[in-house]
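Protocol step 4 of 6: structure prediction from sequence.
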Amino acid sequence: MAKRKSTIDDLMGLKSPGDQQPKKEKPNPVSVGLDQEDLTSLEEIAEELGQSRHAVMRFAIRDFIRRYEAGERPKTKKVTITKEVFDLE
C-alpha cells in the first residue's frame, strides 16, 4: 500500500494518521483578501512545510478557533471613525 502523505494537521499534532473521521458535509469555500506581504509569507510557510497554501490557511483558522474556544482572546481596541457625508436636506 502507498504511504500516505502527511497533512498539516498530522505535522502540527492535531490528528493521528489512524484517526477515522465520520463523513462531513461538503466544506463551504470562503475567500480572504491578503496584501502582497501576507501572501508572500503564506507561500513561504507552505513551501517550508511542504503543504498547500490552502492547508496552511485551514490550519491557521483551526488553530485560532481552538485557542479562542480555550479562552485566549486577541487584543482589540475601539475606534471611532468620523466620515463626511452629503447633507441631503
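Step 5 (inspection) to follow. The helical segments are 8-11, 36-49, 53-69.
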